[in-house]
Design a protein that fits this description.
This protein is of the alpha/beta class and 418 residues long. The protein has 2 domains: 3-245, Metallo-dependent phosphatases (Purple Acid Phosphatase, chain A, domain 2), CATH 3.60.21.10; 250-412. The protein is built from 11 helices and 15 strands. Strands 4-3-2-1-11-12 form a 6-stranded mixed beta sheet, with helices on one face. Strands 5-6-7-8-10-9 form a 6-stranded mixed beta sheet. A 3-stranded parallel beta sheet has the order 13-14-15. Helix 2 (34-49) runs parallel beside helix 3 and helix 5 crosses helix 7 (308-322).
Length: 418
């Protein structure tokens, strides 16, 4: 039997997109409902494509609900799928483990949640597909879950559903339920629907092992299109995998070199061009939240550094003129003054010290080691609000230290960083 299914993960329903609400000009309603809008898009796509079923590989919620409305919204969305004859198979991840949720609501009959006690096999009656999954009972399941998954059922199309970061470096994602692609492939399943990593990744194709990424980007570390994967199956073989963009708000890093700017109007034009290009190439018709990073050696560096507050408002004005749905998340001033312009530049040995601070991995390791005790006690939720914490956990201090070095250069050169 030929059929299609949708594979989604990390919906984080009603996650507040922390920090956005503080920025002037950002519509609060768009921010508040972004994850709901993305879930609505997922449901609409499932109905449009007439999929046989939907798989949600963990982190449907964002931990404890602030109100029952979160669960009610999910139930209503699943009700739309039920009326369309579409079943939903859900694995609970670290954010929606039993220990994290104290307000369970009765789910529609088409929603089937995998057991938290052991790996469980569920069959989709209409297609004969067998899905294998194991939900999280606690935030950290305490080791490898894949080892407990059963072997593939002969004669059926088998799907493994697992919330994991696998092994290896996948950014800031905690190493819950670690396992290897080779270990998963050995189960004999035809497709592995993974969750937990917030970016699309096709780990392998024989069998298909895929992270769909999260459904809606929530901060500047989650840039680019977000959505789900549409999988086509014919004669018990995967014949197509399509990465669908279903997000409502898009995030983008916009880097602007000001090396050629000798006056602020020239800088404004370069920024305008970069933002216009981002709207055309990155927004895909969606509202765009942009972080603008200004780089390069420029004669106007000190003036920019001294007037950071004004610079931010100038860039906001440029963005507002381009589009009502282009919003500024942050301005990072990473320019520097050319030696010929900055007569009070630091001495060569001091520049060497700054270069070592930003480029020496050993120094970065020492700093992270000094922060280990603090990081172990800092709640994971702070990663969304404090960039330093998230970057330190991921071992990426270089860009932050580079920004600090630029700020110090500006101060020594007569600028007044804001």
């Amino acid at each position: 039997m030929d059929f299609k299914f949708l594979h989604a993960a990390d919906i984080h329903l009603d996650s507040p997109l922390r920090g956005l609400a503080q920025y002037q000009g950002v519509p609060a309603e768009v921010v508040r409902t972004a994850t709901r809008g993305a879930l609505d898009n997922l449901v609409a796509k499932a109905i449009e494509e007439e999929v046989a079923f939907v798989v949600i590989a963990g982190d449907l919620y964002d931990g404890e609900w602030d109100a029952f409305s979160t669960g009610l919204f999910f139930c209503a969305a699943m009700g739309r799928l039920q009326r369309a004859g579409i079943e939903v198979f859900v694995v609970l991840g670290n954010h929606d483990a039993e220990s994290q949720l104290t307000r369970p609501l009765p789910l529609p009959e088409n929603v089937r949640v995998f057991s938290t006690k052991a790996a469980e096999s569920l069959e989709h009656a209409a297609t004969g597909v067998v899905l294998h999954g194991h939900s999280y009972k606690t935030r950290d399941p305490g080791g490898d879950l894949a080892a407990g998954y059963p072997a593939a059922r002969a004669g059926a199309f088998n799907i493994g559903v697992l919330h994991t970061a696998l092994t290896g470096n996948r950014g800031p994602h905690a190493p819950y339920a670690p396992c290897t692609p080779e270990q998963l492939a050995a189960k004999g399943y035809d497709y592995w629907a993974l969750g937990h990593v917030h970016s699309f990744e096709q780990v392998r194709t024989d069998p298909y092992i895929i992270f769909p990424g999260n459904l809606q980007g929530r901060n500047i570390r989650e840039t680019g299109p977000k959505g789900a994967v549409l999988v086509s199956v014919a004669e018990r073989r995967v014949t197509g995998v399509e990465n669908l963009a279903l997000d409502v708000v898009r995030w983008a890093q916009v880097e602007v070199s000001l090396e050629s700017a000798t006056a602020e109007p020239q800088a404004h034009e370069l920024i305008r061009q970069a933002l216009s290009h981002a709207l055309e190439q990155k927004a895909d018709g969606r509202p765009l939240m942009a972080r603008v990073r200004l780089t390069g050696g420029t004669a106007i560096h000190n003036a920019l550094a001294e007037g950071r507050d004004a610079l931010r408002e100038e860039i906001r004005a440029i963005g507002a003129a381009l589009s009502e749905t282009l919003w500024l998340e942050k301005v990072v001033l990473a320019t520097h003054a050319p030696p010929a312009v900055n007569s009070t530049a630091p001495a060569d040995d001091f520049e060497a010290l700054l270069a070592a601070l930003t480029d020496d991995s050993a120094i970065h390791g020492d700093l992270i080691a000094d922060l280990t005790d603090f990081l172990s006690k800092a709640p994971a939720e702070l990663d969304q609000d404090v960039e330093l914490i998230a970057e330190a956990r991921a071992g990426r201090l270089g860009p932050l230290l580079a920004d600090a070095a630029d700020a110090l250069r500006a101060r020594l050169g007569g600028g007044r960083p804001g």
